[in-house]
Amino acid sequence: MSSTLRQRAPGQAEKDQLLAAAAQKEQQEATARTTAEQEKFVPPQFTVKQLLDAIPAHCFHRSAIRSSLYIVQDVIALGLLAWAHFHVDQTVASLGMSKLGYHVVRAAAHTLISIAMGLFGTGLWIIAHECGHQAFSSSKAINNAVGWVLHSALLVPYHSWRISHARHHAATGHMTRDEVFVPRTRSYVGVGDIKEEAEIDGFNVSEARQEELKEAIGDAPIYILGNLIAQQLFGWPAYLIRNASGQKWYPKYTNHFQPSSFIFRPDHKNQIIWSDIGLLITLSIVGYWTAMRGFREVLVLYVIPYLWVNHWLVAITFLQHTDPLLPHYSAAKWTFARGALCTIDRTFLGPIGGIVLHGICETHVAHHISSKIPHYSAWEATEAIKDYVGDYYMKSDENFLVSLFKNYRECRWVEDKGDILFYRNGKGIAQRIGVDENGGVSDSGVDVSADKI
């Protein structure tokens, strides 16, 4: 009988299926090993002294006069923009456009003025932030006086935020001590327990499980966009009022306005009161301005720019500390030097970041290594740090607004346990895996015995 007609041996079909499944599994395991090797992250071993030694000494010099010139720059820009606001209507009318064209161009001009004022207002915010770090000048009195005036004008409780922000710098990347944009954990976001072994390190999670996780957390782009808009509109006041994005173990009514709040010591009381007084003075001035000149003028020249300042502040802070490639550490593995390096520099909309926002995005790693370095010296300090730490220096040139949406979607939660944690996206996928100093995968705290998976 011809071999083409010969019947296959009994069980051959089943064997072929098993062989195919085994080959597929071997390929998946090989891919997983390759991916894991490529994305392993060993925490840096630098000391604070080593990082500081890498920075030229003159970068630490603070000049009140030089710092003040940047305030002059921002105030002049805001003044010119206010002047432009009062001349827009007359200028557009002189163009002889149709009624519709007049209103469209006029609205566009006022919108651009408000956006520009928001950017220069953010620049002033950053100078006030430097005052809080004592980087504006070598005089503590000058730093606090200038910072109090500038931050109060922007409705920021100067000393209150200065204190909580110092806590953030003292514990950046620490899972239980950091102050802002602390990663939410698996249990907090409610995606359920680990169901398959691949979930532990976040590589090669099965498609079926990815869909389950995606459904559990809500990963639709429109849902993500809605939450992102809410964060950008209300994130800053929500943080000040009720500790949104901060540590969830803090007491329920933690805020930046009560001297008795958890984040303050008893000796901070007078500073918190002065911060509140600064806000009341600004609100009184804005109220008087509204009564004298009308709400429309206040809306265009203060309220809308203020909202833009809040937007940029939240976006900048979020992207400085939220990225799939940035580690977060348990108390067992955290050090100040590691925390300082688990932030990322970004390019802010071309030259705007360097000129208008004083390089706060482009030089943030150096800022965390030493927050007393003034912004005009942080550029040179950044180059020195970049050369010294090599691959541990993180930088992204991706469009800032693209990164904002993408990272909001890609950074959804971290595991409840573990010493070196990286964000997972809505499908449970991680881009990195932590490895301890001895080369072993960081303990996730998950029981992976056969009867648990």
TrEMBL record:
InterPro entries: FA_desaturase_dom (IPR005804), Fatty_acid_desaturase (IPR012171). It comes from the Eukaryota. One of its GO terms (molecular function) is oxidoreductase activity. PANTHER family: OMEGA-6 FATTY ACID DESATURASE, CHLOROPLASTIC. GO terms for biological process: lipid metabolic process. Keywords: Membrane, Transmembrane, Transmembrane helix. Residues 1-24 are annotated as: Disordered. The keyword Transmembrane applies. Residues 111-394 form the Fatty acid desaturase domain. The chain crosses the membrane at residues 69-88, 108-128, 272-292, 298-319. It holds the Pfam family FA_desaturase. The keyword Transmembrane helix applies. This is Fatty acid desaturase domain-containing protein.
